[in-house]
Amino acid sequence: MSTTTLPADTPTPRRRQRSGAAVAGDLIGGYLPMIIATLAVVLPLVWMIISSFKSPGEIVTRELILFPADPSLAAYERASATVDFPRLFLNSFIVTAIGSGLKVILALTTAYALVFVRFPFKRIIFVAILVALMVPPQVSLLPNYVFIAGLGGTDTYWGLILPGLGTAFGTFLLRQHFLSLPKELLEAAEIDGAGHFRRLFSIVAPVSAPTIATVALVTIVTEWNEYIWPLVITNSLSMATLPVGLTRLQNSEPDPSAYAMLMAGSVLVILPVLIVFAILQRHIVAGLTQGAVK
After folding, report:
1. pTM to 2 decimals?
2. Which of 19, 146, 169, 230 is 20 to 30 A from 221 (CA-CA)?
3. How deeply is 194 buried, as exposed, middle or buried, from its count of CB atoms within 10 A (0-12, 13-18, 19+)?
4. What is 82-292's CATH number?
């Protein structure tokens, strides 16, 4: 067995120097921006949660107080006494559950039809969906209000849900994923006599669970955090959602001493979304990347 001897002038130190430079480049070009971006997102949320346990004197001060000396739930009790949070939770839950459920079903069936059903003007409809992705929802605020208010939908659940049933993002994401599915799978089901309904819910939907979970999560977060439309279409606090109730909470206590109460109200608003995210987060990356490479 022969052994290979490296020449004496092998530039080993130089390779080590390049390797060190590459590591430094990864740290500066990769990890450092990631850490900065993460801190920019996480720190305000952490500060809000910590401040909700502080006393008003620890928030309205010129000194930087990181942690409360005597953590208490007084801000949460004060927020609950000012605004009817159980009612706001119920309204947000109803609007989010029904609205996001219908959105996901409509996106699923629309994407299936765009990929697996033959009908005229399919490409024109898909282009219209892409155009809808570019249009901000605030553009349709006034027409929607005139239409829904004209039908008597002010201060009703259906008036809150109906205008937002279409989801161009969910339809687009599901369509791109469906295009990556093997055609043989659907052809075999068609030969076995399966109709479109059975093919969709027995074959396509099960193999697309991560993508559907991603669409569901994005839809749930959007519905739960929706602020402008519930503010416009509701007049009474009994039909308001949590983000609108948070505004009413701020209007009821406008002085700086109420900052802890507002922080507590904000924590109550985002807590359900964080729980849903923790449940579905393992599907997000898989769902967003499926269909990206065909």
Report:
1. 0.76
2. 146
3. middle
4. 1.10.3720.10
